Amino acid sequence: MTSHTSYRKTEIWLALLWIITAVGAIGGAALINPIINASDYLTMVFPKNMTITSGMFGWMINDIGIVFIGLLIYPILKKHSESMALGYVSMRMFESLLMIVGVFFAMLLIPLSREFIQAGAADAAQFQVIGSILKQAENWFLNLLQLVFLGIGGLILNVIFYKTKLVPRAISIFGFIGYALLLPAAVIGLFGLLDPTPGGPGSILAVPVAIWEIIIMPIWLFAKGFNTEAILTK
Asked: Which DSSP letter does residue 206 get?
């Protein structure tokens, strides 16, 4: 059995997971964001709790899938550097955990909205304060903080790809540049100076990473797969 054949299932699964996780995240955001970002979100969230719950499941597909990406690719990466391979898996796990916490904060808006509707005009200001805190926490964990770990993990992955030539260097260079743009954008976003999240003015900085993860890597893995000979001869 050739090395390429032995890794073929892994390559197919990685390609599928990169697509599935993207669909989960995009779908989850599309369902949740229009509701919780509306000006009257406190009156909308509870009546549309099924939509938000559906969005949560989309995000959970993403959150679980990215961990499996890290675990599946770890045996291949560790042939070059076990420490860097562990670093990549760790970043994916931290990223997943942060997004799970972010979704949890979004889900807390459901009972808050229910209480707001039942209370009527009473204590409206208090509900607005709590809602603003939950929304800010959701944005930090589900968007900004997770992008930091996504950026670090992506840089580690593409450094390994470049050194080992597991994929053509043009692909690893494109990926490295994409994550190198995303990481500082996410850090700056934490200080409120830039919004790199979908729909924000800085979201264009996330486009290269989206192209790399949703289009370039899946297509290459489906069509060609890894150049495993390059890493196995190290």
From this structure: G
